[in-house]
Design brief:
CATH topology of chain A: MetI-like fold
Distance between the termini of chain A: 21 Å
Largest interface: A-B, 21 and 29 residues
Order of helices and strands of chain A: HHHHHHHHHHH
Mean pLDDT of chain A: 86
Low-confidence stretches of chain A: none
Oligomer: heterodimer
Radius of gyration of chain A: 24 Å
Number of helices of chain B: 21
Number of domains of chain A: 1
Shape of chain A: flat
Strand order of the largest sheet of chain B: 16-17-18-13-19-20-21
Number of helices of chain A: 11
CATH class of chain A: Mainly Alpha
CATH architecture of the domain at 12-107 and 179-262 in chain B: 3-Layer(aba) Sandwich
CATH class of the domain at 12-107 and 179-262 in chain B: Alpha Beta
Radius of gyration of chain B: 26 Å
Shape of chain B: globular
Number of strands of chain B: 22
Largest sheet of chain A: none
CATH topology of the domain at 12-107 and 179-262 in chain B: Rossmann fold
Strand content of chain A: under 5%
Distance between the termini of chain B: 60 Å
Structural class of chain B: alpha/beta
Number of strands of chain A: 0
Mean pLDDT of chain B: 86
Low-confidence stretches of chain B: 1-6
Strand content of chain B: 15-25%
CATH superfamily of chain A: MetI-like
CATH superfamily of the domain at 12-107 and 179-262 in chain B: P-loop containing nucleotide triphosphate hydrolases
């Protein structure tokens, strides 16, 4: 049957069925990934097309509005600074080009480290059991109850200025607990499964069972957990930055918001100063949420609907 | 064609009923033009393999078909009402009051946080509004009494009940509003034989008492023969044969029905095996016995799963030793102790003179190569991430049997062919694309490739469709017969144990109660527990007093009697030596 003589409804049905067949063609997943991708594109392409020196204080006129708007002084936006400038004479576009990928970078790095710790500890706890399991489980449970922001504020104030990597490392210390617990639980139930017993009967080594038999089946969980911890990491990082902590000399979305609030941007109606970074953070979070929902449907076929 | 049918109006009439499921691969016809009547007071059995459309038909009658299934043609008439035209609300009122559904796993359908009584009241309140408490209590007590449960059951939570009691509570809930039709979907599939007999008796008695129609869904021809009046045989959604049980058992017309009947192994009946003893004696380098239990005991906390047991399996001639018993008898514990998965609490397990618990890496690999297993659940035995050939290829390479990629492939193909599978069709697939029977055969093929000295088969066919059981068992039997592998067959099914084994041990609460050659132990049981087990098996023999609703048949009493009786040893076979337990008391 060719597509030409199918009715509209039939074509729609066929499309749904194809989607059902290949879970990765999930609209939520695709939309979420495109949103995050567009943030990265802004960062990469922007570096070639825009003068990044405009990110320095005093490189541009102060408090210019985006193109097509007027600020309270009656100045119109200019093409040289299409989304305006901030109170320190920095070009907003240049700040976004550098700041947005920085924020994403901190989130990805922190959760990558957190996940690696989580995978290692989760597997050890679930597989080895006994004392090791008790220690890891209690450790993770205790860490979950400690509010990360509190500790991080103390740490950051003690360190003064930190690099992005340093900040990611600090945050990673607070995102390993839930992957640890999740993986431990999965490993415990998988350890009893028939195919792991079969592998034991086949004389497989512990590392083989962990990484060749169990790990592939954990991939959907790992993905989901990774995305969730990226979200947590970014929230934590932005929280610190808005408080004025975190890297002092590297533009990030959170730091821009901090400076806007500090300079009274809300009273002066400089909405683009805090509004644009907030919007971008919103895009990042919506993107992550959609990916998470999409991954849920991939790993859990029951959530997929045919009609 | 059914001459002895009463002339009343049937309680359920299915006419040209067709049900379809649209799937990615096209529309699947789950039920094709099914026409059937169920009369008042009649019991009609729906028998067929999984996927034959029995449960789908039942769900359609309840208007509970899972999305995206739909009735594509025909009518369902429940005592004069066309069910397909009822609105959601009207159907809700018809459920339970006119047609009751007793689902497959009763343990999962009771609410774990509610006592039994309020759960029973729920149904009455939903249909008749709020009645006063005394009236509700009177009716729930009457329902419990009618299924033979003590009245204090009402105040218990589901986890305090045994599987059989839960299933009887579900029956009580189903009949509380005196429905015209009861649908029981494999009501005993999760229960062992003794409880099964008790539950089926209850169901029959209560159905006779309220005079409703019964639609019993199942796959066990023996159970059907003992329970129903009429039988409907379904295959791939088609009704291939319909008639009274007697008619069908004595003169089955359709070849599929004949298969179903002959697939039930009978104690003392004709063997389904074709012995072909051309196996060479297994090549043994050690003069030590193959497997030896020395006072092995296993405790789980304060519960003793296995009382001290000692035996020696010489293994010079291949033998099949059966270990039979109900769930909880300690038979699977024995299996996992032999495999070294579960260390014994006391005593030692020796494999060729070597303690299984204290092996070094090389000995351990040798032990693994020589002691293989077939497990109960063929669905769980394959890693869903890999194609099925991974499960065959990996151990072959791991044990250093593979010389080249081509040799491995050849060995896999030969093993598949030996168990009756087409290697090209099966090997490159993912596990979920294969049926349970195909998977279990692949596990047998895997054991064959490794040619171990000992195979532990733990309920290898209990989760496989009935018509395939005999052929998979004969695959396993061939391992002994043609390839010289000694086998420990762990099962609850005495009839198959009768045919395949050289020696049988009956386990009851961790003790051996009767042991000896199968012809004596199962053919002429002496211990009360063995007799109880054998009496509970439903066989396709019509004139046996199995489910006749006798009230004097009380398994609890019989079990208590069995617990008091001494173990009975019925002779020995060369090569297997069971140390007799000292008489207790």
């Amino acid at each position: 049957m060719s597509t030409a003589n199918m009715s509209r409804a039939e074509r729609r049905q066929a499309r749904r069925i194809r989607r059902f067949d290949n879970p990765w063609l999930n609209p939520k997943l695709i939309w979420g990934a495109s949103l995050l991708f567009s943030i990265m594109i802004i960062g990469i392409v922007g570096r070639f097309l825009w003068d990044l020196d405009l990110v320095f204080t005093g490189s541009s006129p102060l408090k210019l509005p985006p193109l097509g708007f007027e600020n309270l002084r009656g100045q119109p936006g200019v093409i040289a600074h299409p989304i305006g400038t901030d109170g320190g004479g920095r070009d907003m576009l240049a700040m976004v080009i550098i700041g947005a990928p920085n924020t994403l970078f901190v989130g990805l790095l922190a959760s990558l480290i957190g996940m690696s710790i989580g995978i290692f500890l989760g597997f050890s706890a679930g597989f080895l059991g006994g004392r090791i399991d008790d220690t890891i489980r209690v450790g993770a449970d205790v860490m979950i109850t400690i509010p990360p922001l509190l500790i991080l504020v103390v740490f950051q104030s003690a360190f003064g200025d930190v690099t992005l990597t340093m900040m990611a490392l600090l945050i990673a210390g607070f995102v390993w607990q839930s992957p640890t617990r999740l993986i431990r639980a999965q490993v415990l139930s998988m350890k009893q499964s028939g195919y792991v017993q079969m592998a034991q009967l086949s004389g497989a080594s512990t590392t083989h069972i962990m990484f060749r038999e169990m790990m592939p089946n954990l991939v959907p969980y790992l993905f989901g957990s990774f995305i969730a911890s990226v979200t947590t990491s970014i929230v934590t990082a932005v929280g610190l930055e808005v408080l004025g902590l975190g890297p002092q000399r590297i533009p990030t979305l959170g730091r821009t918001i901090y400076e806007a609030i500090n300079a009274g941007a809300l009273i002066q109606n400089l909405w683009w100063w805090w509004g644009i970074p907030t919007l971008l953070l919103g895009v990042i979070f919506i993107g992550l949420l959609l990916i998470n929902l999409g991954l849920d449907e991939v790993s859990n076929p029951r959530l997929r609907r045919l009609s | 064609m059914l001459d002895d049918v009463t002339k009343d109006k049937p309680v359920l009439t299915l006419e040209d009923l067709s049900i379809e499921f649209p799937t990615p691969a096209g529309v699947v016809q789950a039920v094709k033009a099914l026409s059937l009547d169920i009369h008042k007071g009649r019991r009609v059995g729906f028998i067929g393999e999984s996927g034959s459309g029995k449960t789908t038909t039942a769900l359609a009658v309840m208007q509970m078909l899972a999305e995206p299934g739909r009735v594509s043609g025909g009518t369902i008439d429940l005592g004069g009402t066309n069910i397909l035209e009822l609105s959601e609300e009207e159907m809700r009122r018809a459920r339970l009051s006119r047609v009751a559904y007793i689902p497959q796993g009763a343990m999962n359908s009771l609410n774990p946080v509610m006592r039994v009584e309020p759960q029973m009241w729920d149904g009455i309140i939903a249909h008749e509004g709020h009645l006063d408490r005394a009236e509700l209590k009177r009716r729930s007590d009457a329902a419990l009494a009618s299924v033979g449960l003590p009245l204090h059951t009402a105040d218990l939570y589901p986890h305090e009940l045994s599987g059989g009691m839960k299933q009887r509570v579900c029956i009580a809930m189903g009949i509380i509003l005196n429905p015209e039709l009861i649908i029981a979907d494999e009501p005993t599939s999760a229960l062992d034989v003794v409880t099964q007999r008790q539950v089926m008796q209850t169901l029959k008695a209560i159905q006779t008492q309220i005079g409703s129609g019964l639609m019993l869904i199942g796959h066990d021809m023996g159970l059907m023969a003992q329970t129903v009046d009429e039988l409907a045989v379904l295959k791939d959604g088609e009704l291939v044969e319909h008639g009274t049980v007697r008619q069908i058992l004595q003169a089955p017309a359709h070849p599929y029905t004949k298969d179903l009947i002959s697939s039930v192994p009978l104690v003392g009946g004709e063997s389904f095996l074709s012995p072909d003893a051309r196996a060479d004696a297994p090549k043994r380098t050690s003069s030590e016995p193959l497997l030896r239990f020395e006072d092995v005991r296993k405790d789980y906390g304060s519960v003793t799963a296995l009382h001290p047991m000692s035996f020696t399996l010489q293994g010079d001639t291949p033998q099949i030793i059966s270990i039979v018993g109900q769930s909880g008898s300690g038979k699977s514990t024995m299996g996992s102790i032999m495999l070294g998965f579960n260390p014994p609490s006391r005593g030692r397990v020796l494999f060729e003179g070597q303690d299984v618990a204290g092996m070094n890496a090389a000995q351990s690999l040798d032990f693994r190569k020589n002691v293989q297993a077939v497990f109960q659940d063929p669905y769980a035995c394959f890693n869903p991430f890999y194609r099925v050939n991974h499960a065959l290829k990996f151990p072959y390479k791991q044990f250093g049997l593979a010389t080249s990629e081509a040799a491995t492939q050849r060995a896999m193909e030969e093993a598949c062919a030996a168990v009756g599978l087409d290697p090209e069709l099966v090997l490159p697939r993912y596990p979920h694309q294969l049926s349970g029977g195909q998977r279990q055969r692949l596990i047998v093929a895997r054991a064959l490739m490794l040619s171990p000295k000992l195979l532990i088969a733990d309920e290898p066919v209990s989760m496989v469709d009935a018509s395939l059981r005999a052929s998979i068992l004969s695959n396993i039997y061939d391992l002994k017969d043609k390839y010289g592998i000694s086998i420990l067959y762990i099962t609850h099914d005495l009839a198959t144990a009768y045919h395949v084994s050289d020696y049988v041990m009956v386990l009851f609460k961790g003790h051996v109660v009767e042991a000896g050659p199968p012809k004596e132990v199962i053919g002429a049981p002496q211990h009360p527990y063995t007799r109880l087990l054998i009496d509970s098996i439903p066989w396709p023999e019509l004139d046996r007093s199995w489910g006749d609703g006798r009230t004097d048949w009380d398994p609890a009493n019989l079990e208590a009697e069995a617990a008091r009786a001494e173990a009975i040893y019925r002779g020995t076979v060369p090569g297997f030596d069971l140390i007799e337990e000292a008489p207790h008391g």
